[in-house]
């Protein structure tokens, strides 16, 4: 059952990622059609994407830790946490990630870093105080699974693509506003060009929303996958399930949480409560995650 869920989540995540790239490429092509510059719009989209991804790839993890005010966790001060990370690193065959603590009453955690050799795991003091060892192991195993699956890199790419879609859509709409189709197009000299521009206009309006929805869907799939692989790592799904129950009941909100980083935490730090907001959430409903874990 665990292996089937892992395989299904991986397939769905790849499919959604390809859809994302298709949206970016279509917007770039429409931008080129607007300026009658062939594939120049696609080239611009690639340049913007590469620039933003490069910055996030090399500097993103330090920025995330700084924003959350995470501090290094010493073995002397946090022996249980460090021991759990060391044990799970050995069990998973991964290099030991750097361990950080966030001074916050909420129960939460996240992983960051471009690959397992440059990974970090941060846990709130609320999690250390309110979770027992098995529950804390479940939380850390979930984050270790994100590291193992390169989820941080994957979701960084997705987040950047959301930004690229927004930028390209903005450029397209502003260009339409200031220039519009040229006279030759208006007189019917290039009907195909007009069709491409009109399709681009629809894309520019709808693509940013579609991109956000795809990002949320991918993130939810990756959370289910990390739950399943975390349970496989500890061989004790109940530990993570019980931790999620405590997270659901916890009324504290992570005070330094950033909406741009919402997908990184083990649970939504903003406590979105209803079915409609779940559509626009980076995390599946906790009750569904618990149910999936209990079925393993």
Describe this structure in words.
With 296 residues, this protein is mainly alpha-helical. It folds into 2 domains: 2-59 and 164-206, no CATH class; 63-150 and 220-294, Zincin-like (2-Layer Sandwich). Helices cover 68% and strands 6% of the residues. The chain is built from 11 helices and 4 strands; from the N terminus they run H-H-E-H-E-E-E-H-H-H-H-H-H-H-H. It has helices at 2-34, 40-67, 79-92, 125-130, 133-148, 151-178, 183-186, 191-234, 237-249, 275-279, 286-294; strands at residues 70-72, 98-102, 109-112, 120-124. A 4-stranded mixed sheet has the order 1-2-4-3, sandwiched between helices. Strand 3 and strand 4 (120-124) form a beta hairpin. It is elongated and about 70 Å long.
């Amino acid at each position: 059952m665990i292996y089937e869920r892992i395989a299904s989540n991986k397939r769905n995540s790849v499919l959604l990622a390809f859809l994302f790239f298709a949206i970016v490429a279509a917007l770039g092509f429409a931008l080129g059609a607007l300026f009658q510059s062939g594939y120049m719009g696609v080239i611009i989209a690639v340049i913007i994407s590469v620039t933003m991804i490069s910055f996030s790839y090399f500097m993103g993890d330090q920025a995330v830790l700084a924003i959350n005010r995470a501090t290094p966790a010493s073995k002397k001060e946090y022996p249980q946490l460090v021991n759990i990370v060391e044990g799970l690193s050995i069990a998973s065959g991964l290099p030991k990630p750097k361990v950080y603590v966030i001074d916050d009453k909420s129960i939460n955690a996240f992983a960051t870093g471009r690959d397992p050799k440059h990974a970090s795991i941060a846990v709130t003091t609320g999690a250390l105080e309110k979770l027992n060892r098995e529950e804390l192991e479940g939380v850390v195993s979930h984050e270790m699974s994100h590291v193992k699956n390169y989820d941080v890199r994957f979701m960084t790419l997705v987040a950047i693509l959301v930004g690229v879609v927004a930028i390209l859509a903005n450029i397209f709409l502003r260009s339409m506003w200031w220039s519009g189709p040229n006279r030759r197009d208006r007189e019917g000299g290039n009907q195909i060009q007009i069709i491409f521009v009109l399709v681009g206009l629809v894309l520019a309006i709808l693509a940013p929303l579609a991109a956000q929805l795809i990002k949320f869907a991918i993130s939810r799939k990756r959370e289910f996958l990390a739950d399943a692989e975390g349970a496989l790592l500890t061989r004790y799904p109940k530990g993570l399930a019980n931790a999620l129950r405590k997270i659901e009941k916890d009324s504290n909100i992570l005070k330094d949480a950033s909406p741009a980083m919402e997908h990184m935490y083990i649970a939504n730090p903003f406590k979105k409560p209803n079915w409609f907001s779940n559509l626009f959430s980076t995390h599946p409903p906790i009750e569904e995650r618990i149910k999936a874990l209990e079925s393993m």
